[in-house]
Amino acid sequence: MKHLTLLLLILPFAFQLNLNGAVVYSGIQNIPIPTTLDGVYINVDNAATSGSTILGWDLNPFFGGAGMANSPSFQPARTGTGNTDPAIRLYFGDLVSNALNFSSGFGGTGDPISHLGAGANQFAIGQEGYLGFRFTTDNAGGPYLGWMRVTFTNNTAGGVIHDWAYDDSGSAITVGLPIPEPSRTALLALFIGGTCLRRRRAGFTHS
Q1: CA 126, CA 86: separation in Å to the nearest integer?
Q2: How far apart are CA 135 and CA 73, in angstroms?
Q3: How many Å apart are CA 107 and CA 85, to the nearest integer?
Q4: Which of 2, 149, 159, 178 could form a disulfide bond with 65, CB atoms 3.0-4.6 angstroms apart?
Q5: Which band of pLDDT confidence, cut at 50, 70 and 90, is reported for residue 20?
């Protein structure tokens, strides 16, 4: 009973540690990108999606990811500062900072497939890559810097928005990291909980 009481005291604190971090992580989403012109509208704040325009939409990939549109609140990292310059592919461990090129206002990809290809800054068709971005939340927070893990195709099935993260302190963020993991306190709580269960089961066995 003493261990169970300690567990109940620790758990709220453990989960609070995870929620108060500077990095906001979407969790695995795996949002399919349709091969239609409508595509899918995504709200980064709440992970809402729709096949038509929704309130607070940020990104609208279409044709499997061969085309992309963005709202003023969401600016992908590009080869230049024009709002139709190609989005660039980033890699795990790269830094998303204000040193990258971002535009303003509504934007697109210009040539619909200019961000796809075999170049170092292009997204390889059918392979995972990372989109860097700068965005403002629905309640005008930010701008914040983030990354989005994607798989783009050239108007075929298999295009996916996997997940994303941003730093709500406004700091630069490393691509792919940090994805929040259970804190040591949370792990301790789980350990204590497991110990309690094992002891209870042992008690039932011997009774």
Answers
A1: 18
A2: 5
A3: 9
A4: 159
A5: very low
Q: Which tokens is 39 given? A: 């595509």
Please enumerate in sequence order all residues whose Cβ is within 8 A of that of 22, keeping only pairs 6 or more positions apart, or say none.
167, 168, 169, 171
Classified as helix, coil or strand, 14 is: helix
C-beta of residue 150 within 8 angstroms of C-beta of residue 169: no
Cis peptide before 178 (omega within 30 of 0): yes
Number of H-type helices and E-type strands within the chain: 2, 14
Q: Categorize the per-residue pLDDT at 180 as very low, low, confident or very high, splitting at 50, 70 and 90.
A: low
pTM for the structure as a whole: 0.78
The secondary element (H helix, E strand) that includes residue 25 is strand 23-25
Return the CA Rg of the chain: 21
> What is the residue type of 31?
I
DSSP conformational letter for 20: T
> Alpha-carbon distance 82 to 92, whole Å?
25
Question: Does residue 10 sit in helix, strand or coil?
Answer: helix
Query: 3-class SS at 199?
Result: helix
Element (H, E) at 205: helix 184-206
For 152-204, strand residue ranges (E) read 160-167, 173-174
pLDDT tens profile 21-68: 599 999 999 999 999 999 999 999 999 999 999 999 999 999 999 999
Beta-carbon contacts of 145 under 8 Å, excluding residues fewer than 6 positions away, are 96, 97, 98, 132, 133, 134, 166, 167, 170, 171, 172, 173
